[in-house]
Amino acid sequence: MKTKSDKNNNIFELANPETQFGQIDTFTSSHNVFSVRITDRKLLPVTKLIFNRTLYHEGPMYWKGVNFRVGDINEFSYLKQCHGFTEDYILFIATTEQNIDIKILAFMAYRLEGKEETVEIHPLNVEKYIK
Hints:
The chain is mainly β. It has one helix at residues 73-83, and strands at 21-28, 33-39, 45-52, 56-58, 62-64, 69-70, 90-95, 101-106, 108-113, 116-121. Strands 5-1-2-3-9-10 form a six-stranded antiparallel beta sheet, with no helix packed on it. A four-stranded antiparallel beta sheet has the order 4-8-7-6, with no helix packed on it. The chain is globular, with a radius of gyration of 14 Å. Mean pLDDT is 81; it is low at 1-8.
């Protein structure tokens, strides 16, 4: 599992992620697609984060603070030990304003603006998000 412990990584390159809100938008279990809608303070849709082949989610349905990072080896190891996940997946974590971790374990994820994919994170490029 690739790791990252810096809580301020903003891997999806969102503007002002600390002030934006995240809301679970859809989960399609047959396709393992999980999406999070990102909105600004006016609650206008800004963008979506799409997580493909999602195996696990933990956290509230709506929260403030969408500064996602790649989870560190200890965080991933704990989930792997409890649930038996494979090494090929990436643990995405955002810590909310209330200091609650949103955890999403998925094979890959990308930021969607309209119909354009802008930032894509998968096992072949996750190393650049790890310092």
